Amino acid sequence: MSSHTNMWFYISLVFLFTYNVMGSEPIDTTLGFVSQPLNQSNFDIQKPYNLPVDQRYNFFGEVHKLWVFETDKPHSRKSKTNPRTEIRIRGYDYSSGVWQFEAYGYVPSDTSGVCIMQIFGSKPPKASTTMLTVYNSSLYYYRNQVILSDLYNKWFRLNVIHDVEDNNVKVYIDGILKHEGRVRVGPHIHHYFKCGVYSQKEGSFYMESRWKDIRVFRLHD
């Protein structure tokens, strides 16, 4: 076998390995996980402190719609964070094990500079283990890696798996692995899932996201 042929054989193997690792085919990410019971009481709506919930959130036809303006107040009088309207999932805070968030998300056009999902809890001074942000029609892991392009005006299924002991997070879009990486978290940190809109740098004036079929899973012991 010539050196040229060997080179192409090697390149093909590398491509095949990369193709498979990054998730060429959709998979069922919930295999081996146990679905946790959820109802509306588990959804704590964090919104500008000076407004009633129904001015920044509604739930109609199984869809949670959350929106916020760049000029809105933070979620509490003492907070110095940016405006947000988020669902904070209660009842399933965790500091060990393997947990998974699943939901269908939708982001309308012109929403940009916003976090739409996060795993809260991290070693200070950071507050979150994972943030998924939207900038100019693309979904990013923080602002470092594009998870999904051409995001606007269509539903997508999001699965985020957090292995606490392994300090690992995986992000899937429509069953396809889009990101896997280690996270730096100190011991005994409590985590929980959030989704909605949380204004970031260079945020648009109006920000909105919609969510349905929100589920939380834990890996079976």
Automatic annotation (TrEMBL):
InterPro entries: Alginate_lyase_2 (IPR014895), ConA-like_dom_sf (IPR013320). Residues 40-217 form the Alginate lyase domain. Transmembrane segments: none annotated. It comes from the Eukaryota. Keywords: Signal. Pfam families: Alginate_lyase2. Residues 1-23 form the signal peptide. This is Alginate lyase 2 domain-containing protein.
